[in-house]
Amino acid sequence: MTIPHDPWLVALSIAIAIQGSFVGLSLARGIDSAEGFRRRVAIAGSAITLATGVWSMHFVAMLAANFPSAVDYLVLPTLISFLICVIVVGVGAYAAHMSGPPAFRIGTGALAMGLGVSLMHYVGMSAVHLAGPTSYAPAFVVASIAVAIAASAFALWTIDSRPTRPRLFLGAIALGLAISGMHYTAMAGMRLDPLCYDVSRFVGAESALSRNTLALLATIVSFGVSGAFLLSLVPDGRAPRGAEAAPAAAEPASPLVSISAHALESAPLLSPSAELEPVAPAGGGAVSIRVEKDGRARDIAVSDIYAIRANAHYTYVHDGDKEYFCNLSISALEAQLDPKAFLRVHRSDIVAVDRIARVKRSGEAGVAELGAPVRCSIPIARA
After folding, report:
1. Are 132 and 198 in contact (CB under 8 A)?
2. DSSP 328
């Protein structure tokens, strides 16, 4: 027998999964650029938020299921399912942002995240207390795990390396559908023992949550997830004009910014597909830059640098695949680089000229797209 579901609660469970995924993936974006304690906080925040979205989706979906007999939920498996989800999803988020080729990182992260969501589901289902035993069709178990892993891989791919807001939404929708799709695929394979239909045999379990208590708990958690989702949509506040002018006065704009702006104005027919002629790096400047990644220091060759972006008094160096932390300011790095090979196209960005694939107009400014293995776009300011 297929267990009927309330369509409105099904839709609500999917919306909660997508909202939780958006907040979790938004926090996961900061893992690569964070170091030390801040990196651990970013991983923990992403894991807890994603796990909360998964857990709340699961139990809202359980409220949508119309079982043939009374039902309550054992407390211990319910709590363990949440703990498992936090740990395994955290491992997945960390694996997706560790060093290595993108395919390996995303594959490892998706495997951990997909298995974590699946494990959380089946441990959570063990908390369901009915009048009789239940079982699962093996084919549906395998299918549900495959759905979770595949959609998790797509979600992690969308946020890999400087994700835009549309890609973040796309990843959240994919991961939300993965979570809910895994759940409902697994529920389609759930088999009820005939004893489940004998209401007179149901005896409430000790240390169990009633359906009404679970509904209240799931509602509170869902409100929290929705609130975090709405807060994540609030745009960053812009600094007052006077505040923006102060840093500019303290640090004179590089003449390279004017060069890039002039190049945009002098090319009125420039289209998104227009190619830039590569400029061969000239002699002079530093040969390598000392950077850090995951607490390990290394030297990255200047010829391997695609772009540099400022973050407060420090910088992040992009090699086309991932970013490395550098304790030098963007002005200090600019002074060490060959000005014929690198352009200061923005107050916070330097780009290697020979790595630019194309330039596009974006309002009054522009965007440089790099020919990197991982897609990367750099803003170009107007002087």
Report:
1. yes
2. S
Tokens of 112: 């951990």
300 dihedral zone (left: phi>0; alpha: psi -120 to 50; beta): beta
In 3D space, the residue among 94, 30, 28, 34 whose CA is nearest the CA of residue 292 turns out to be 34
Domains and their CATH numbers in the chain: 7-233 (no CATH), 253-380 (2.40.50.40)
| H or E, element range at 312 | none
Q: Where are the alpha helices (DSSP H) in 189-240?
A: 211-233
Give 363's contacts (C-beta < 8 A, 6+ positions apart). none
Taking the CA atoms of residue 291, residue 297, residue 298 and residue 299 in that order, the dihedral angle to the nearest 10 degrees is 40
- Point out which residues pair with 65 in neighbouring strands: 5
* 374 vs 161: CA distance, rounded Å: 7
Q: What is the pLDDT along the chain (383 residues), one digit of tens a residue?
A: 567 788 888 888 888 888 888 877 777 766 766 666 777 777 777 778 777 888 888 878 888 887 776 677 777 887 888 888 888 877 877 777 776 677 888 888 888 888 888 888 888 888 777 656 777 888 888 988 888 888 788 777 776 655 567 777 887 888 888 788 888 888 888 877 666 555 554 444 455 555 566 666 766 766 666 566 566 555 544 444 433 443 444 344 444 444 444 444 444 433 444 443 333 344 456 688 888 887 677 888 888 899 998 877 788 898 888 888 888 888 888 888 888 888 888 888 898 888 888 888 766 677 888 877 767 778 887 54
Specify burial of residue 132 (Cβ count, 10 A radius: 0-12, 13-18, 19+).
middle
At 90, list the tokens.
């955290």
Question: In the block, which residue shows the tokens 């892993």?
Answer: 149
